[in-house]
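## tool: complex_structure
## caller: assistant
## args:
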Amino acid sequence: MVNPGHGRGPDSGSNSDPFPTGLRVLVVDDDPTCLMILEKMLRTCLYKVTKCNRAEIALSLLRKNKNGFDIVISDVHMPDMDGFKLLEHVGLEMDLPVIMMSADDSKSVVLKGVTHGAVDYLIKPVRIEALKNIWQHVVRKKRNEWNVSEHSGSIEDTCGDRQQQQQQRDDADNNSSSVNEGNCRSSRKRKQEEVDEQGDDKEDTSSLKKPRVVWSVELHQQFVAAVNQLGVDKAVPKKILEMMNVPGLTRENVASHLQKYRIYLRRLGGVSQHQGNLNHSFMTGQDPSFGPLSSLNGFDLQALAVAGQLPAQSLAQLQAAGHGRSSLTKSGMSVSPLVDQRSIFNFENSKIRFGDGHGQTMNNGNKQMNLLHGVPMGMEPKQFAGNHMHMQQQITGLRTGQNVQSSGMPRGGPPMLPSLGQQPMLSSSVSRRSDLTDGVAVRNCIPETSSGRMLPANHSVFNNFPSELPRNSFPLASAPGISIPVSVSYQEEVNSSDAKGNSLSAAAVTAGFGDPSYDIFNDFPQHQQHNNINNRLNDWDLRNIGLVFDSQQDAGAASAAFSTSEAYSSSSRKRRETEVTVLAEHGQNQQLPSRSLNHLNQVYMDGGSVRVKSERVAETVTCPPTTTLFHDQYNQEDLMSALLKQEGFPSVDNEFDFDGYSIDNIPV
Amino acid sequence: MQRQVALIKQSLFDQGYLDEQFMALEELQDDANPNFVEEVSALYFKDSARLINNIDQALERGSFDFNRLDSYMHQFKGSSTSIGANKVKAECTMFRDYCRAGNAEGCLRTFQQLKKEHSTLRKKLEHYFQLARQAGPKETARRPK
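## result:
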């Protein structure tokens, strides 16, 4: 995350920097006259020039010294090897920027150069003015690489988003950057500088105008087919590219997609058996993030997106189910802690909402917080010790119930099929809601439910508290109809599931869920941020209609937002770490509040994003809840918001699952 | 003397033998390569002679491989354009047009014209460089500016 910041250096400072000086250029042209002139021109630009009159020799030079050149300039028409061929090889093997040149200025040839991945196309006679600028391609390339490597996660997401909505791309970018700014500002308040950096990074990535490949479903399927044929471990971008044989697709595109794909596979653990599904979900994982957000995209996109998100969950669930309880126990444990935190957050949220009807209208986070302060106080004493738990438990209960249901399906029949069947249902339901602009309500409900997800231990408790659940969901949702019914159904289902005593399965499901859901979080949070912070986003506007949530969150939203953004920006690897850490956090919180601080801090060192949260959490835990002042509430809010953000997403899925589930079950 | 050199060069431009690319080359001339333009020109004529020879042979074969001819001429055009040989470049372009049209006669006719332009330019440039050398290296280096 830090690198991009540095990456900006060369760009902005390049004018004063000696940077372009000494740029190592390889010139390839079979025409000695041109070669000589070019060499002279490049030297006049103070570049370090290597000339070469045969493409084959150029290629061997490049292969011998892969890091010996910054950029390649190649003629198109050459006897031994076509310039395009060279371009292809360079792109595949060295990933260097290549500039094509030719006396041929016909559009088709220029187009061919560009589609083959040339960063530029110079028409002879090449003028020195054009060569003076070629270093920009080097900078651009490097920046792209940075971004890809450093932010693979974020880039994936944002790119996926952009791909999804090409038309809205620019808007989205602007919004996202502005949102980030907003986040940064809020974060500055809290002196979270890392967040700042990340926000800036975000801007960087959004300002990048690198050519984007739209990984359509078909394209992705081609990709997956190629990967499967080659074997996941043996698949290399070059071969995949060759197998796919898609014009315009570069090795870089394939490489980054492969990277994402591998990360995706890794996330799903040993699920490789379910590759068919995985592919699906993988794709969806990318796309969905935006899909649901944008009401503009309409049904299909949303459905896709939802489906994508859901699949991940469902897969996880399936996995869990398939693997049996042994696997579940591990994952279950870790997951459960998460639930706890969530529940806390939810609880707090609910408190806020409960306490203040007024709070809803408040736009200001601070104000809200104050309100919360006052009102909740009465509630808190009890709540913290007792209610806290109750809430959590309840939530967990709900969650578990959901999970159980979902998990139950797989058990009864072939594990895979049920989930698949559910997906469509879910997606449809989701889309419906989004259309209704009940998104907010759904979200609100979701957090609670999501929090309910895990705690296996809580099940019993949860049984006791079922009545409370509806409350929470309702106030939070404050949204018209839909959310409520859902929640109700939820409860019932949960109860039934509890009765069954499927706690283990539920836990397992949740555990499996953990990873995928996290991803989802990442995707969602961003959107949410946008919504909360930026009502500008068209997509979100609809959802924003549910005022309660937004208003309340606005304050918290910022914090949550950046936490999410951080997670986003951080590489996928980091994400994982954060996941783990979060889990750890939660677990500790539950068991050892005092300890949690230490643990959290340590853990958090890894992922910047989590850190903040964890600390906050720790504080809340350690301090007597009610006594803490603005401070605490702040923290709480942060936590809440963060949780909401993170969990809000998954929870949505869950809700859908529910719907899907109920629908499925009822008719059947 | 220097004026004479300048006049010759100006006439080359005025008559369309050279274009601004030639000026660009002269601007590249510096202390490290005081005779850069002349060297490039020498290289160009040497290489283009080879190309002309190739094309000659291809044409003599009687069977017109237009793709091959076009490829040759593309290279010819590339180098001619790089040196600013405006008239030669124009002939190259015409030749390629005939190639694409499959007009063998046009190719032959154009090629003769091309060779003529090429040799004319060669003579004129040789004369120019000779004078320029006599006028002194500084002169050639400074004049373009």
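## assistant note: Confidence is low (pLDDT under 50) at residues 1-15, 151-210, 270-668 of chain A. The radius of gyration of chain A is 27 Å. Handing back to user.
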